[in-house]
Fold this protein.
Amino acid sequence: MIVLIAPETDIPQEIEILHQLFNAGLQYYHLRKPEKSFDAHAEYLNQIDTAFHNRIVVHDHHDLINSYNLKGIHFQEQKRKDHIENPGQYFKTLNMFGKTISSSFHEPEDLAACYFEFDYHLLSPVFSSISKQGYEGRGFDVNHIDKTIIGMGGVTADNIDRFKALGYKGVGVLGGIWNSENPVEVFIEMQKQF
């Protein structure tokens, strides 16, 4: 399973490359644009072929799920801590039927102890980040945790086997694809590993 995270700030030909990635088989695209407003998110989604909307997970403006046929919603760590204590209240206004719910974690112990049943969990940094300077990898081994855990941090086509050996069911990638010369080729190469 490959989860592609959006570049924080828009890059040239981003939507065009994204369409190529969807056509190459991308199933999980995490739309994380912290600086974009609700309207800017909607504008971004409107540029993407509606056939691919059901592969997009939003990090912010979760109520977009009521207007678009999205795959699901994602909780950054702080947002999870703020809202998941009373999930019934949070989800009351969201049309979540058949949608995924995921969350970010930075400590395996917190992930293992989390009582809320997420569809999958992003854990970082496994290896040193490609997109965030000074974000040192910690080599978390999660073989002992019986949850769907996606490893993030320093993902390349060459180290996916190391993620698998540490117990990850997939990888979350940002810099490894967006910072490469040919994002689509790199994605296809990573996909072959799964």
